[in-house]
Amino acid sequence: MNSDITRLSAAELAHALDSREVSSVEVVQAHLDRIATVDADVHAYLHVDGEGALAAAQAVDQRRASGEDLHVLAGVPIAVKDVMVTKGLPTTCGSKILKGWIPPYDATVVSRLKAAGMPILGKTNMDEFAMGSSTEHSAYGPTHNPWDLTRIPGGSGGGSSAVVAAYEAPWAIGTDTGGSIRQPASVTGTVGVKPTYGGVSRYGLVALASSLDQAGPCTRTVLDAALLHSVIGGYDPMDSTSINAPVPSVVEAARNADVKGLKVGVIKELGGEGYQAGVRARFDESVALLQEAGAEIVEVSCPSFDYALAAYYLILPSEASSNLAKFDAMRYGLRVLPEGIDDPSAEQVMAATRDAGFGDEVKRRIILGTYALSSGYYDAYYGQAQKVRRLIAGDFDRAFGQVDVLVSPTAPTTAFKLGDKLDDPMSMYLQDVATIPANLAGVPGMSLPSGLAEEDGLPTGIQILAPATKDERLYNVGAALEKMLVDKWGGSLLAKAPELTAKGA
Q: Which residue positions are annotated as catalytic (predicted)?
């Protein structure tokens, strides 16, 4: 048994629990101790539920001791992005406007985790309402990258990727609207998967953009991602966009590290100018490894991808403007009374609350989306963006007619310094240039560590994309590439990260 429980993968923990080498209480306590040691510096958690996690762990241990037939992952703890509602635990979406809100119900994803017997360690930090690429837009302060505490951990789900990279949880739930699982995975040296749109229930996921949002796994290995995907995936009648079909055979695919004869398409438009040299170098090496393993490499052109960013930043703000209208200071959350008005109207209270409760980035996107949806501009902006979205989906259809999977760098750069892009929104938005097309088309994507950039010694990521509902292809290719890269590095990439201590890196 490994002396440091927190360094084990979720699959290794599940095996150790099943064979009684360790108890769930011991596993949870080890992670709580790790959180107490390093999270003051990393700030990946917004809320830690030590008492609840230990109680859940104790219940699993008692059931296992009594001989009950348990889920294979029972007792393995997990962290959850603070955009998923959790009964009895705060859900803030990283915003002041929901500070202190305790939901009365669980999201379907959370219900499935609990049904599998997985103790929830806590809720992870995020850009406010999932708007951002650096987790600097959280109302509760930024999360720091465990590789270098002066740098961002990606966003919007930087908290979920950081808890995994810092060994504060074996795995976590993230959400991906334009790259918020995959981009943080890329810059923290972890694995992140956005399943097919509709493959994981959105019930209880506080909506940013309903046609784009998707929950998925944040892990340290491809197998762990597959195991978690198998738990949270599947049809949910509470979600009208849920796919009524079995979960793809992702676990079997993750155990099949064979890509011989597979056709892999390199996306011409997602590379070149604007991509850091170290990112490109590690990507090219990864593609070469796939070719050595017997995959056929083909360059594929998706010309409409050049317009994806512009279309996305009309569609997302428009849907955000509609979805965030429910935060009206009337039913729950923050309520601020306007100054100097003795008997304020509902509209005045609403305006004062939104002004105080929403951060600058959220306000920016609400204004943009409201404008795009306004009379006289709807067809010119939102309508045109939806037409571009259709063209992007067509590009994917044609590409997947030629190849089995597509690949690109996940993010154009490694993790940048905290504060570097806060005054330049467009520069921040460009961090998602490679991940956005998958959300617009609803296809699944995975980010896998591809190595360290020579310029700064920080992680880079390779993105794998598959046709809708063919998520198992991500895991097949991901597992094969992971095995080759681990052999090349002489171990896990995360093992090369600086050790965190109570005083920082």
A: 81 (charge relay system), 156 (charge relay system), 180 (acyl-ester intermediate)
Domains of the chain: 5-305+390-496 (3.90.1300.10)
Question: Please, how many CA atoms are within 13 Å of residue 265, restricted to the half-sphere of its CB?
Answer: 22
Question: What single string gives the DSSP state of each residue in 202-266?
Answer: -TTBPPS-TTT--EEEEESSHHHHHHHHHHHBS--TT-TT---SPPP-HHHHHT----TT-EEEE
Counted residue by residue, the chain has a size of: 505
Specify the 3-state DSSP secondary structure of 275. Answer: coil
User: Three-state SS for 60?
Assistant: helix
pTM summary value: 0.96
DSSP letters for 81-94: ETTB--TTS---TT
Question: What is d(CA 331, CA 104) in angstroms, rounded to the nearest whole number?
Answer: 13
DSSP label of 465: E
In this structure, the number of other CB atoms found within 10 A of the CB of residue 297 comes to 15
Q: Which of 480, 376, 392 is nearest to 436 (CA)?
A: 392
- Tokens 């209208």: give the residue: 325
CA separation for the pair 289, 419 (Å, rounded): 36
Phi, psi of 241 (to 5 degrees): -100, 5
| CA–CA distance, 489 with 144 (Å, rounded to integer) | 25
Catalytic machinery residues: 81, 156, 180
Report the chain's terminal Cα–Cα distance, integer Å.
27
- The pLDDT tens digits for 271-327 are 988 999 999 999 999 999 999 999 999 999 999 999 999 999 999 999 999 999 999
Q: State the greatest distance between any 2 C-alpha atoms of the chain, in Å, as a whole number.
A: 75
CB 175 within 8 A of CB 84: yes
CA dihedral angle for residue 240, residue 246, residue 247, residue 249, rounded to 10 degrees: -160
Amino acid residing at 475: Y
8 A C-beta contact, residue 140 and residue 232: no
- Of 81, 46, 152, the C-alpha closest to 428 is 152
- Residue 56's CB is within 10 A of a number of other CB atoms, namely 24
CA distances from 416 to 144, 188, 237 (A): 11, 11, 41
- Whether residue 502 is predicted with pLDDT greater than 60 in this model: the reply is no
